[in-house]
Structures are given as structure tokens and as C-alpha cells.
Amino acid sequence: MWTCPVAVAVRREVESQLRAFGLLAAGSAIPCSALWLACKPHHSLHRLVWDMVCLAAIHAFERGRRTAWAVSDQLGVPVLIEQIATRAAVGAFWEALADFAATAKVPRSARSVQLTQQPFVAWHVVVVRGNGLRVVRR
Q1: Torsions phi, psi of 4, nearest 5?
Q2: How far apart are CA 4 and CA 68, in angstroms?
Q3: In this structure, are residues 61 and 1 in contact, taking their beta carbons and an 8 Å threshold?
Q4: pLDDT digits (tens, 9 = 90+) for 108-131
Q5: What are the b/e assignments for 47-67, b being 16+ CB within 10 Å?
Q6: Could you report the per-residue pLDDT of 43-91, keeping only the tens digit for each?
Q7: pLDDT in tens, 48-58
Q8: What is the CA radius of gyration of the chain?
């Protein structure tokens, strides 16, 4: 499962965000336990954010697999099936994070300075309405 093209595409998305924020060294990869067991790959990641990233990634793996099965009867070309499934998975990953940012209730105890400087989802103190979460993509 970890080497499935769908999982690889979602992992690359996660890793690119971690690298953009300086939380993952260039050329290195996150271990399987980081996503499957929600083990933070860097100490400065906020627990709330990392938990949602892990849930969104696993959801995206499943969406990609379902998409592959749905189009496999219509498309006989494995490369096309893989491209469609990986794009659906990456889209599902960001969609799940955006949905979380739009609907989550952030406890006051979790609203810290650390939460303002996170990859993926960050607390935006300036927001007047809503919960203050926004999706961050670099």
C-alpha cells in the first residue's frame, strides 16, 4: 500500500509542504508511521494540524483507489487510470483539509503562536468571522 502510486502522490504532497516550511530535509521522506500512526515527523508540528493531515491523507488514499476502480472498466490504459486516480487523491487530500478548516471548532487552548506558523492548516488571528483556520499551501 505504501508504494501504491496513489499513496506516493499524496505522500509527495505532504512532503512538499513539510519541505516548504523547513520541517523535512531535502531528499528525505516521511516514514510510514508518520501518516499511519500519526507520529509527528517534526516536533514543531501542531498535534491538531498533524492529526488532520494524517486523516486527510488516509482519506485521499481511499478516494484514489475508489477512483481507480471506477474508471478501470472504461479505460484500459493503466497509465491513464493511475493519472486520474492520483489527481483525484491529491484533490481529495486538499478538499478534506479545506473542509476541516471551514468547519472545525478550535479550542482556545489550541490557539497558540505555534498554530499560526504551520504547514497545511494555520490559525489566522486576523479573521473576525469563522473559526480562524485557513488552508496553507506553498
Answers
A1: -60, 140
A2: 12
A3: yes
A4: 766 666 667 788 877 665 554 566
A5: ebbbebbbebbbbbbebbbeb
A6: 989 888 899 999 999 999 999 999 999 998 887 788 889 999 999 999 9
A7: 889 999 999 99
A8: 16
Q: Are strands 120-123 and 133-136 parallel, antiparallel or unpaired?
A: antiparallel
d(CA 135, CA 49): 10
**Distance in angstroms (rounded) separating the CA atoms of residues 25 and 3:** 21
Amino acid in position 86:
T
CA–CA gap between residue 105 and residue 84 (Å, rounded) = 33
Q: How far lies 74's CA from each of 67, 68, 82, 105, in Å?
A: 12, 10, 13, 42
What separation in angstroms does the CA of 69 have from each of 7, 56, 73, 76, 89? 15, 20, 8, 11, 13
